[in-house]
Amino acid sequence: MILEIRTAGDPVLKKIAEDVTKIDKRLRNLLDNMAETMYATEGIGIAAPQVGQSIRAIVVDVDEKRYDMINPVITFREGSITDTEGCLSCPELFGEVERAEKICVQYTSRFNKKKELEAEGLLARCIQHEIDHLNGRLFIDIAKNITKGKPEK
Ligand code: CO
Q1: Active-site residue numbers?
Q2: Alpha-carbon distance 40 to 42, whole Å?
């Protein structure tokens, strides 16, 4: 099911999301709907607050591998790199955001397994962007050179 995407100005996007305490069919259904919504809008990541659920869950897929991450925590970051970002919750806006180049993230899987992932490049960027959503932060809060429409490179 495709869900309604909340856009900048919606208070749910400014809240600190709650930890997920129960991993059940209902949560897995939400994750599937988040993924479907993300693919339908050609996004590469989506966070639960973007569909109005203030809980710590994200879905990312930058390279045809989908990760569902519950209660994700970045435990290591290295380097710094600036690149263009956009967001499903900020239609048509793009901006330059500085992120760690390489990260390690610990999370719980949709089947309640503890997982750890090392990521770099676009995947690392995407995970950092989505975790920011769980902390009430949008990329436009931290971006430089925000433009309407994709900037020419
Ligand atoms: Co976003």
Answers
A1: 130
A2: 6
Distance of CA 38 from the midpoint of ligand 1 (Å): 11
- Cα 138 to ligand 1 centre (Å): 6
Q: What is the pLDDT of residues 80-136, one digit of tens each?
A: 999 999 999 999 999 999 999 999 999 999 999 999 999 999 999 999 999 999 999
- Residue whose entry in the numeric block shows the structure tokens 């607050």: 49
